[in-house]
Amino acid sequence: MAADAQPTPKRRRWPWAVLGGLVLLLGAVLAVLGWLLTTSSGLERLVRTAVDYSDGQLRIEGAEGRLTGPLQIRRLSLTTPTLQLQLDALALDWSPAALFERRVHIHSLSLDSVRFATAPSDAPGESPALPDSLALPVAVQVDRLTLGRLAQEAFPFDPATPAGTPLIDTLALSLTTGAEVHRLVLDSVGTPVGPAKGELSLGVAAPHPTQLTATLAGQFGEYAMDVALVAHGPLAALDTTATVTREATEVVVATQLKPFEVMPVDRIALTGERINPAQWAASAPTALMRVESTLTVTGDMTAPQLSGPLSVSNADSGAWDTGKLPLQQLDAQLQLSAAQVMVSDLRARLAGKGSITGAIDWAPSDDPAGLLNAKLALADINLHALDARLPDSRMKGQLDAAASAGKQTLSGTLSDPRLQATLAVNHADDRVTIETLALKRDKSRVVATGHLNTTGVQTFEVDLKLTALDPKPLWADAPPATINGDLKVAGQLDDLQGRVSYRLIDSVLDGKPLAGEGALRWRGERLSEVAAWLRLAGNRVDATGAWGAKADVLDVRVNAPELAALGLDVSGVARLDGQISGGLKTPAGRFTASAEKLRLPGELRLQSLTADVSLGEGLDGPISLAIGGQDLRTQAKGPALLERFALTADGRRQQHVIELSAAAGSGEAIDARLRGGLSESMAWRGTVEALALAGRLPLKLTAPAALEASDKRVRLSRAALRTDDGGQLVLEQTDWTPGAVVAKGHMSGLLLGLETRPDQPPKRGQGELQLGGDWDVQLGETARGTVHVFRESGDLVLTGDTVLRFGLTELDVLANIDNTQLALSLNAKGDTLGTLAGSATARLKKGAAGWQLDGQGPLLGSAVLDIPAIGWFGALVSPAVRTDGKLRTEFSLSGTPDAPVGVGRVTGDDLAIGIADEGLRLSGGKLIADFDANQLRIDTLSFASPSRVAPRDRRINYASLTKTPGQLTASGAMSLKDGDGQIRFEADRLPIFQRADRWLAVSGTGKIETRWDAPSLEASFRADGGYLEFAKSPAPSLSDDVVILGDEPSVSNRALQARVEVDLGEQLYLSALGLDTRLAGKLLLQVQAGDALRATGTVKTVGGSFEGYGQKLNITRGQVNFIGPLDNPGLDVLAVRSGLEVEAGMSITGTVRRPHIQLVSTPDVPDAEKLGWIVLGRKPDESGGADLALLLPAAQALLGGPGGGVTRELASGLGLDEISLGQGELNSVSRGATSSVVGGGSRIDSGATTSGRVLTLGKRLSATTTISFEQSLSGVAQIVKLTHQLTRSLSVVGRAGTDNAVDLQWSMSFR
């Protein structure tokens, strides 16, 4: 059994050993990978390995962190034969775990800078092929990638040198890729012209739909422009549009990009809208152009060719002198390439229906001018339409230009019926020759010939001949003339020098004789061999000698007795005599000058001016200056701008004293004294020893202040000025250099008052506003500073006819400059003023003239004025005007300084207006009005005015009319530029007069067409009720022909038109001058531009009476008819004394200027009896004198008028000076006058009979002699009397007739 037993098999151990080894090996590999990926030492090992295996092409410096993140590398450089790349400050933070999801997830990747350069290559470029799919092996997600700057360098570059100008900076983007679409969001990128941003989406599968949007806010030089780029479509053919906008200008470029073709662009469409050249260049004309062009692109990228039409239209063409472009339309065919530029089918239409047609062909060559061939045809060119200063013309002609390597020529002829021009110029063999340049118009002719050598010292010569030249037809601004003469100029451009000679003979300028002859040589800044004179209308200038070198002296003499003849808007008499030496850098010499009765531009007048100036050479040269003048004023009324001024300087250049004194007619004056000298660099350095201002701000310098002044710097040391009442102004620092200004200082205790009568000297009194302030401004490469002005104490007082105090408690004005930003604020409070608060911001820019407002920058501002009570406003208008209520104004400002946009609103509540003298009262007012820079809109203006005073007359239904308050409403809009607009108003029982003796309520509607130059009014009113009471005798007034000097009525230029309908209603009562009645009727008042007011209609009296001489006459008929001028209506009035046996009265017909008055009665009786029934109520007593004494003055008053009435007219018609009825005897020396036209007045003698009545007719022969005829009314006695006044008390009286005698009369009066 033992032999049959099987042996036990041996166990195999090697598979397990192999498996264990593999596990150990894998663990080791994983451990090594973990060490390399997750430790800083592992990162260091990987970096060394990569650098070692790169054969020196890769360099990594300052690697820190872990490969799995975060990771930082200070610098990574890669250099290959064709590429050089440098990355600085790389920082990476990513999620390695995302790799298990087949995804690369980068949280952040940042680089401070990237510099790269590529080697140039001559190998032809090949168009890349478009793959069928843009899918990535793994998805990529970059949450944020930032780059400080990207710069392209020349290959190769030295990493130690500073980087060049960056292509982009401050880049920030995010990226997400997917199975269907890739998306990139460009949050921001800085470019050399401005910031940009955009977004891109790209389809993965063909045809790869693409969508791109990008914007750029660019600054191209001094112009800010916005650029928008939009592209969409398949990747192989992207429809792309770029839009560039600046203000109103918009340029659109549209094309289709084919990036995988040999020529990626086959067509470019260009459209420009609202292009204005003046927005791009300050000196360019204005226009409103539209540009269209569609260019076809052929060839390849090495030699592209563009061809297509070009069209330019100008919707705002005009003459050049008006600042516009005289081009209306331009069309042409373009062919552009690197080898040739062709403009064919050129057609230009100009202002005035002129046209230019032709073609231009240019190609580059070895000659800088290239090869040129141009032919242009001109037709119907109206020079006056191109520039209004040029004459009317219909020019036509041909211009030809040709250029080749050996010769260039320009020739042409232009002509119209009155003007011919010929031009022929060529350039060959280093010489430009003007073969002919001729202009001819009528008898005028200008011919020029000459040449210029373009090599060597470049000698030149020009010969100009003038024959009967009249520049007026060629240039509208030129004066008419007839000029005959010649001008020759010859010299060289290298080391510029030459000679000039001229001669004018038999010439006339602006109707005045002109003559002259002269010659001179020049070299650099020196003039030599000067011998010239010129005479115009008696004014002559002579110059002889030389100027510029040390020993040169130029004698100059000017004698101008007729400055007005020069046509320079200057008149008067002027003389000058002097010698000039030295040169431009160190001028010297002496001259004396004087002028009288000068009239200067700007309506300035100077009565006299004298000057005596002497300036020696060198720093030690003597200097003497004395300039003075008297009475500088304008034509406007008021004091002289300067009553006197004087400037003197005495000493030497390097040490002298300057004194300045000036006084204005308004009481302002300045006196200053400076001591200092000039340096070799023409810089003045010294001190201001004294400075005193008089007038509104009487300041005096407390201590001398150093002053430096030159064209490179002006600097004033600390200067303190004080007033006698304790105010001070301190200039701590004042410094100016080109491009920089520094100003610092403060003030306190300065008084400010407002004076409404500028013709009176300024007054200073207690309570005036006292201001303080400080400023610190620095304007250089940057701008910084503040200016602060504030109230310290006192009040703002407005003095004039009334004294107005604003009750100021706070006033603060602050300006702050922070580089390119300017901020302003204003705050004020006052018991009368209310509150005022405002602020504004604007942008500054630095230009050639220094810091200034940016006219195109944003402008923002607002202000609020809240006045709780406007009672002060009425007193400001007139002491009789009363106002009340509150006003609030809100204002906002936007736009730009060149085109500001302001809007605001004015609201008022509880408004009241009253004129106490007239009884006018409007109350309960409300106002809502909006305004902007162009228009004022009155949304609401209303008054609810109750009646507070009842009329004295009880015939008016006062209770019914005033049951509810009267109303006045208005609304409308008007242009602030020309006033064009309309305001409508409506009144309902509005009590415009509220006095017991003057009360009136009206209703009506109307409208006002508001134009500043031609306003018009159309309205209709009805008197609801009223009572008007006036004095029984009119107030004294001046005659119409009396004019008060200084108070002449002003003449208005407004062409007013009005049409007003007036209905007097049924309750309008009048009590005036003894008349008591009710008025009724309708009137139409009209006025046309330049005409007097006219009226049409009738005013009637309804019942009523007239009181005169103690009697009451009933008005049975009263009618005033208007048909024409308002001051001369027709009259039809009948007033009688009723209830008597004979009812007598007066009838008035005719017109106001020529009334016809007669006595009437029922039954009809003689006029003497009619007068008795009116005055006495009975027939007059024919046997007594008492009734006659009463009736004669009554007749004069009733039937006459101012100056004596009927009796006066009778005396004047008979050629007499006196008709009188007196009491006395013919043989007496004198008698009392009971009624007379000329005499001692009128008195009534109550004698019972007429036995002593005498009628006297007299005529004055001279101032002291009178002859008269006297007739007794009770007998046949009569005499002729001659009276001669010897002295005031003694006269001789001679009588002939019934009594013959000579009397010596002595009179004495006791007072």
From TrEMBL:
GO terms for biological process: protein secretion. Its main location: membrane. It is found in: Membrane. This is DUF490 domain-containing protein. GO terms for cellular component: plasma membrane; TAM protein secretion complex. It is a single-pass membrane protein. The chain crosses the membrane at residues 16-37. Keywords: Membrane, Transmembrane, Transmembrane helix. The keyword Transmembrane helix applies. Residues 964-1310 form the Translocation and assembly module TamB C-terminal domain. It comes from the Bacteria. It comes from Denitromonas halophila. The keyword Transmembrane applies.
